[in-house]
Amino acid sequence: MSLQRIVRVPLGHPTSAVCVAGVETLVDIYGSVPEGTEMFEVYGTPGVDIYISPRVERDWEHADTRWWCFDAGLQIIVVMNSPSNDLNDSHISSSAPKDCTSFSISASPGVVVDVAHRPPAKKNLTGSSKWPLDPGLEVSLKMTAASDSTGDQKVQISYYGPETTPVEALLYVTRVEILRVDFTRTGKMKSTGGRKDQRTWTWGPHGQGAILLVNCDRDSPISSTVDCKDDQLDSKDLKDMSLVTLSTKTPRDFFSKHQLVPHVAKSEMDKVRVFRANADKQPSRYGMILGPRHPSHPLELQGGHHSTDFHVEGLAFPDASFPGLISLNVSLLDTSKPELPKALVFQDNVVFHVAPWIMTPNTQSPKEVYVCRLFENEDFLKSVAALAKKARYKLMVCAKEESMNDRWMQDEMEIGYIQAPHKTLPVVFDSPRNRGLKDFPIKCMLGPDFGYMTRVPQTGRVTDLDSFGNLEVSSPVTVGGKEYPLGRILTGDRGYPSKESQEMHQDLQDFLSAQQVQAPVKLYSDWLSVGHVDEFLSFVPVHKKGFQLLLASPRSCYKLFQEWMKDGHGEALLFQGVKNKAQQKIKDILSNEKLREHNSYMEKCIDWNREVLKPELTERDIVDVPQLFKLQKGFEGTLKAEAFFPNMVNMLVLGKHLGIPKPFGPIINGRCCLEEKVWSLLEPLGLHCTFIDDFYTYHVQHGDVHCGTNVCRQPFSFKWWHMVP
Q1: Residues near 279 by beta carbon (within 8 Å), at least 6 away in sequence
Q2: 3-class secondary structure, 587
Q3: What are the residue numbers of the active site?
Q4: In a domain? residue 237
């Protein structure tokens, strides 16, 4: 639907108007109508199309088809269909004289005039081009091409009374074109043409609206921070930005009396930065015209046909106080009378949506694996390296000097991506935990085409639930007919508020929700000592079904041990092969009522989450992975759960290759019965299990393989702007 503006056309002397491409111009034929007018007639020069139609039903009719009765509801719409060559080279005559009863409209060849009216429209049976002056008519004009000179098209309105000679009003019109941007999300520039759909941003496969990336990578090796923190440009920066072209087609003398001013709302100026390209196309010399402390910038332009490129970068991600929408406006001002304030002639804008940060689930193909080198984890490191090599993925090892003996790579960061039609950028989200690895994401990962961002809570303390082992995402799901093509974020939370309970900081929760495309689901994890969701669940890729959910299951473990007990293996030992660790027999574990009571409680906590996940993620198959927990007193004296043996759901998923914590279960018939069980559950799904010894390097430190590793994964093929949140 086109934008509209109304032009008043007085009697007695010609007036002028500027028509912007794509903007429907309504001609007020009633403001100066002569007394007694019954009919009117409208003519336009060849560059103007004129339409007449009812205001409500918009039943348009070309104005030159007949005379029109002079009724108060009529409107004339003028469209210029070719460029102007001179100032006022097209005209419209208007302002009805006294006693006029009808009117006709004529326009020069560059003008098309339409008349609209509310039905029933009065018909002139003689076939003349006069129209009854009905109250419901609208007259509009559209110019179909830019003017070569100011006022080179014209529209004439003639008013007719019962006995009077026609009284004429004349309007000179000039058509200009401005602003081009990729609002169709195809990666191609299109003229906005004053369209309303580019003034709003809509979701879905048929939605419209431009997309903006936060320029959060670091293209220059000498820079110490992300590119959007400064107003300097290089050629690589341009690839991270959205292009807006100010393409002006105007008469040559047009900007001697007019001015274009790009601007953003003051509330948005710290969310965006706009650079103007120069003639020599050297980015280092591009000047910032809009951004922090700079909401507007008048442009010095020449008339004629010119294009000026502007490069736009986002400075902020969507958040609780910022929905991610930014409106880039262009105002056309009339400066023809220096003694008067500048008059607003036209205003156009394009709405950008800042691309959200998107997480990638285990089911997305890996690109690179991350792990820390410690003084004591060489064997673990070799196992992870061998798995990455077997799966054919790159491995990045954080040096001892960088890790500061902090082994929890998963807790430090989460790697996702941002995307626009022209660019996809991996982005690491640095958690607020700020321990030994706090500098690793910004020092070792931030770089050309690899972005960085963080959220540091301004109030309240940071807890274990703010580490990103407590931040996971499901595979794509459909729940109750609602599609989540990018999956759903999963975070751990308290079950209910209490003095001892913890929850993810509200600032982090708000940020994740504000991304909109992966609606978060809260799970109950505060029953765990560390409190992370990756301690009781994981997702694995399954070729035909897409994914399966793995849940830690004390019930499954007790059932397995009871089966082996019945088969006469009650003497088989848990922790066999672990140095300096007391071994336990199957029969002793089964007879330990306190341990059984603890695990009954843990099973209830996991079952609570099972019931949350079923309706939220659909009835996908759930695989119960045998696992026992134990309750230990935490720092605050409350009982919290820890894994009794290495937690097998806390695994590294590299495509079909799984790096699973070695559980050191009872050896039966020469094999670990826990490994054997997991093998039987996962190998039929096309998955390959590798069991990694992390007992002393990670498990006794309250974490396992997943906690000590991280993965950068391929983005979704599905485009986020095609979904409807």
Answers
A1: none
A2: helix
A3: 411, 532, 534, 707
A4: yes
User: What's the rounded Cα separation, in Å, for the pair 404 and 152?
Assistant: 74
**What pTM does this model have?**
0.85
Give the pLDDT score at 64.
Answer: 57
CA atoms within 13 A on the CB side of 8: 5
**Looking at the structure, do residues 277 and 170 belong to the same domain, yes or no?**
no
Domain boundary among 291, 320, 355: 355
Burial 332-341 (b: 16+ CB within 10 A, else e): bbbbeeeeee
**Per-residue DSSP letters for 35-93?**
TT--EEEEEE-TBEEEEEEETTT---EEGGGBEEE--TT-EEEEEE-S---BTT-EE-B
Are both 254 and 346 inside the same structural domain?
yes
CB 518 within 8 A of CB 489: yes
Report which of 712, 183, 713, 196 is spatially closest to residue 420, judged by C-alpha positions.
183
Is 722 part of a structural domain of the chain? no
> Of 159, 92, 162, which is closest to residue 130 (Cα–Cα)?
159
Q: Can the peptide bond before residue 338 be classed as cis, meaning omega within 30 degrees of 0? A: no
Where are the alpha helices (H) located in 463-553, listed in sequence order?
506-514
Q: Dihedral (C-alpha) 722, 723, 724, 725: value to the nearest 10 degrees?
A: -140
Is the pLDDT at 513 greater than 60? The verdict is yes
Domain boundary among 144, 176, 208: 176
For residue 658, the cross-strand partners are 653, 689
Is the domain of 646 the same as that of 527?
yes
Contacts of residue 17, defined as CB under 8 A and 6 or more positions apart, other chains included, come to: 7, 25, 171, 172, 173, 174
SS3 assignment for 28-39: ECCCCCCCCCCE
How far apart, in Å, are the Cα atoms of 383 and each of 85, 145, 395, 396? 76, 68, 12, 14
Assign 92 a pLDDT band (cuts: 50, 70, 90). very low
